[in-house]
Write the structure tokens for this entry.
Amino acid sequence: MDKNAPRRALKAAFPYTLPILTGYMFLGIAYGILMNKKGFGVGWTAISSITIFAGAMQYVSLTLLTAPFNPVYTLVLTLMVNARHVFYGISMLERYKNSGRLKIPTIFFMADEAFSINCSVNPPKGVDGGWFYFWVSLLNYLYWVIYGCIGNLIGNLIPFETKGLDFVLTALFVVIFINQWQEQKKHTAALVGLLCSFLCLVIFKAENFMIPSMLAILTSLLFMRGKIEGEVS
Amino acid sequence: MPMNSLEIFLTILIMAAGTAATRFVSFWLFPAHKKTPNVVIYLGKVLPYSVMGMLIVYCLKDVSILHWSHGLPEFIAIGATAALHLWKKNMMISISAGTILYMILIQFVFN
């Protein structure tokens, strides 16, 4: 492998992470501010972001950290909130296969946003895939850690109204959804994802719909394997 | 605070270990040097398409159709993002314009 491969991959990866850089501005800073309000300084904020690194989970942790010590409940809740990572892992088995020593950090940094980019973008020609996936994931990680600390230290001083900025991430997923849609001739798998999640949201409500959604998606995909397998190239 | 520093630290460590486990488990179960079962390869190919729909619904989970603003800002901003993306095919333009529109909608129009 040539020496410039990491740098070339970084150049190719950075633009893809701009929506994350913007979206985390709100989510990360808001997290830092909330930690501050609950009485946790920048040290605890940094430790949480560096070791846990999962946005939704860290918002949940605000309640766990201000309640009596309950390790079993903490572990069960963590596994439930983050169960979707199992889907990401299965999706990335092939793509991360040749990442070598970058594989472990790339998997550790596998957040929703890094996953959605890495599973849908093919690294440009001449760019090493392992490094490309690694940079997308590492940048994603650094943005989250840094914004959290900034929010904790000076969050209350931010002069402009950031309400709604987190929509960047919704828009990111919508745009990737459209890109994927246009790549494929038939759309059963995409529709299965939308429909199962939507139905489970209606039935189980916002707090509890993710696990049922994942089970419904898994069942539907397995049940319709014969039909869907030929659709995806 | 109901916990001492050690208990806070342990709680964070448990969350960190649990989160990492959900990320690594698929790679432990299906290591690269062994043949991955065909059904898992199939799921790996199709799941990204299903998951993206799931993530969109996940982002919108707290929107209430029944209460003001009835999900209208989200509906309009997603429509605009999608239309712009189909037209210009430029990720950054679609995402930034959609987000700015959304911020204007919830800060000034549906406030």
